[in-house]
What does this fold into?
Amino acid sequence: MHPQTIKVACSNCNLRELCMPMQLDQQALERIDEVVATRKSIKRGATLFRSGEKFTSLYAIRTGFFKTLVATDDGREQVTGFQMAGEIIGLDGIVNDKHSCDAVALEDAEVCVMPFDRLEELSREVNALQHHVHKIMSREIVREHGVMLLLGSMRAEERVAAFLLNLVKRLHARGFSRSELVLRMTREEIGSYLGLKLETVSRTFSKFVEEKIVEVKQRHLRILDADALQRIVNPQVCH
It folds into this structure.
């Protein structure tokens, strides 16, 4: 079944601040509207793009949640990131003109399709847009470094605490609660991303519940003590 394709306008999208530069004037926004001409609906479990596929577009997530993953040499899947509304995916394809990972919808989702050649063309005319695209790329690099640091030097509890704090911070930027969230990903997917076994993730969640740091009901999670999570990640803050 072909994904639904609809005309979309960035100029009156409620995620514009997250997705597009704030300092664009109306004329520039209208030019971008011409580039971002379509939306795609992706069903839960479906793939937006696959590793090895030709890179043509960047995708701004309008609704829903995605995971990106790569297949390891022994056939296992390694989750490389989780992306949510207002974030842009597909940047992995720029370097070699083909995607280096799969992007899978964790729930029914909708993305705005931004053909990269037209985006580049427009970036040359609209400086604010070019700067914004560079900023998005830079943010991805910083995030990658953060993940490497997380995996390289942190104990299991620190990894899970940092993951939850990052997730809630990103959701809060989109107008959601500072303390309540629905985990769209499974414990196994969290483990894959954090380099932890499923049992370790489950055990860590149980420990946080026991210590009254979080409350968990299936996929609904409430942070009861954000400071305690922060202290787990940065123990020196206590002193």
